[in-house]
Amino acid sequence: xSPHSSFRSDWFSPAxxxxxxxxxxxxxxxxMDGVDAAVVELTSADGTPDGIHSIRxxxxxxxxxxxxxxxxxxxxxxxxxxGGGSSAPLSLAHTGxxxxxxxxxxxxxxxxxxxxxxxxxxxxxxTVWHQxxxxxxxxxVGGDGQIGGYSVRSTLQIGSAPTLAQLLGVTTIGDFRAADxxxxxxxxxxxxxxxxxFLRKPDENIIALNLGGIANITVIPAGAAEQDVIAFDxxxxxxxxxASTMKFFGKRYDSGGSIGQAGRVLTRFMDxxxxxxxxxQPPPKSTGRExxxxxxxNAALKFTYLDAQPAEDAVRTVTEFTAWSIAxxxxxxxxxxxxxxxxxxxxxxxxxxxxxxxxxxxLRHELPAMTLDTTATQGIPPDAKEAMFFAYFAYRTLGxxxxxxxxxxxxxxxxxxxxxxxx
Amino acid sequence: xSPHSSFRSDWFSPAxxxxxxxxxxxxxxxxMDGVDAAVVELTSADGTPDGIHSIRxxxxxxxxxxxxxxxxxxxxxxxxxxGGGSSAPLSLAHTGxxxxxxxxxxxxxxxxxxxxxxxxxxxxxxTVWHQxxxxxxxxxVGGDGQIGGYSVRSTLQIGSAPTLAQLLGVTTIGDFRAADxxxxxxxxxxxxxxxxxFLRKPDENIIALNLGGIANITVIPAGAAEQDVIAFDxxxxxxxxxASTMKFFGKRYDSGGSIGQAGRVLTRFMDxxxxxxxxxQPPPKSTGRExxxxxxxNAALKFTYLDAQPAEDAVRTVTEFTAWSIAxxxxxxxxxxxxxxxxxxxxxxxxxxxxxxxxxxxLRHELPAMTLDTTATQGIPPDAKEAMFFAYFAYRTLGxxxxxxxxxxxxxxxxxxxxxxxx
Lengths: 423, 423
What we know:
The structure is a homodimer of 423-residue chains. Chain A has helices at 6-10, 67-77, 87-102, 104-110, 161-168, 178-182, 191-199, 238-249, 258-261, 267-274, 294-301, 311-333, 357-366, 385-398, 406-409; strands spanning 21-27, 34-44, 53-64, 120-123, 126-137, 140-142, 145-147, 150-158, 172-174, 205-211, 214-220, 230-236, 345-350, 371-374, 419-421. Chain A has 423 residues and is of the alpha/beta class. The first copy, chain A, has a 6-stranded mixed beta sheet, with helices on both faces. Chain A has a 5-stranded mixed beta sheet with strand order 12-11-10-13-14, sandwiched between helices. A two-stranded antiparallel sheet of chain A has the order 5-8. In chain A, a hairpin with a 6-residue loop joins strand 1 (21-27) and strand 2 (34-44). In chain A, helix 3 packs parallel to helix 5 and helix 10 (267-274) packs across helix 12 (311-333). The longest helix of chain A has 23 residues, at 311-333. Chain A is globular. The relative contact order of chain A is 0.16. The interface between A and B is large, with 82 and 82 residues.
């Protein structure tokens, strides 16, 4: 490719938005089971940066990681010493993961998309550390502990973008979270910009609900401006349900929600779960596996569960609690505060939890005045959504637009995210 | 700054070369003693990418690292477990180092250079791992050892560029070596592109000689084209001299070369040193501390050094051996093969070794037909040279030009180096 290709001369200029652009997004989530890829066409309706953006999915697929890759990544993310050292295994995994991602070339070809037709790849990489709370760097250990040094908040995604750019021959953007963290933000969530751009309606309140391990919502009032958007973690989603099926059935998850559907709610257990203060704590807030895990489940079960009751009842109760925790956050922090009462409200769900019919039914029961469907109705297959994020953020970066929402992440200002390596 | 600033619309386009550009380069070398910074103005003589580039140093300085930073970096680079984990300390140092680099803001201000006037910062970062030999990633351990997986060659420089870009508010380019490694190159040396651009002459053969821990040369025949340039490590420079002053005098280096100047050459010791086969091995070749260290010195001394001889003689001999090893490489692999016999040859030295008068005199004695001076005569203070590299490579990257030389690194092709984070 010429060093002054037509692609590049359009970057960071309004001209970038004058044509439809083909991009690929790559995502490797905390489950570390493989790379999700999405090839999309992005368009600005009026050919300007401020025009309404639309996204069209051309292909998507998941390529499972070889088991050796999963093991090496899990060790890095668990922050355990690997191979006796610190830098070498991380360097190897950082570059090695780019080689794994480069296999997307074959899958693209199979889907009829030539890699050379891509304007860019947006690659999230694999998070191996995310610590938006300040730590000390470079201080000296004095008589009274650590002194001096720099107060640092850090996040680290591996999967070398300059390497991937050369392996694919396509400009690759990675490292999307560091800029927001440097500006005092949490570096997450990034979904709200995507939700705002592609799900907002002039005459309907939208709540984008992601049912991953943790449940999080993006609240987009009817006709909202960007700064009206809020987003936060409501509490557990699949994490606690999975813990209950593992404990009582030895199964990794409740497939289709059938176990939950076979049980009944245990009132005392439900009451114990509802005592968790996180649920009613006002946003901004975020949570994770460190709170909603097997210990949490066992603590709530301790005085409430009787062996005489069917195990399905426990799973049902956890599922209903999960739905309640989401609904309670919507009732407390969206209805009457954020949502425009003139218009109806639609919840648009994505994430693995959408396949749990017991959870989805419970949500509908909790929020009867709202419509609940999935992003599939908006042309966004729930399984492709996260990979689509990073294709879209790459599109914004090359157009010189920010992708973080300071109202959501807490950053001091907007930033054009990522580090661009030319292919 | 506007998302469509005039700077950005010139990137990757010939327009980038139409105006002088102000850039800052940051370098942290293997000595890990601090950050070297250089602020330069870059210009293309005829305003095109192919014009003769010139570089003018406006300010340079070294900011020593706080001792706590040195310790944490040394542990990472030594590949020792740090704080019991692998990802967290590396993430902290990666981001923390960007905070350290951001102090350049104050030093720039003191030098009368407003950070906001910089078009970009080029930051090498701190190398914590460099392994251009293939390792296995993601394979499974089978009965016969590691099977499957990916063959990976990796390099890792820390000092988060997206973080630095936000802290300074200036576009920052980092990660300059990964692309060349991904293309099968060694990711080093990068100096030859700089040497070629700023030291070449139509009517003089130029040998750029860097006297760091290791000595390396860039050979630029009179009137050479880019692909005529070769570069390689000739063997030890300061490493072995420093080892000898440490062993015999407890000093970290021979200040000014005065110890060496007080001694005489020990012939049997010299002969033992000259037996090292690396010196006469044909290029391409590279070496390091793993060969030229205290053990190497002790092995050569074993049967040759008598306590009755003055210790200064040992230092003198090592210094003369160092000069001989450089000269021998020039005689074997440049004279008569690369250099144009019609024109004279000038050696232009940089690196800490230029301050060792004993070494410089020995070089002049070894190569009487050549002129020896330092980069200072070319407007490039030897102490600022490496930081100037990364200002220049950032300039090339934003102009869409490659900075690696495949004839030198062994990469399969040229690449626009680095990852660009917008400030």
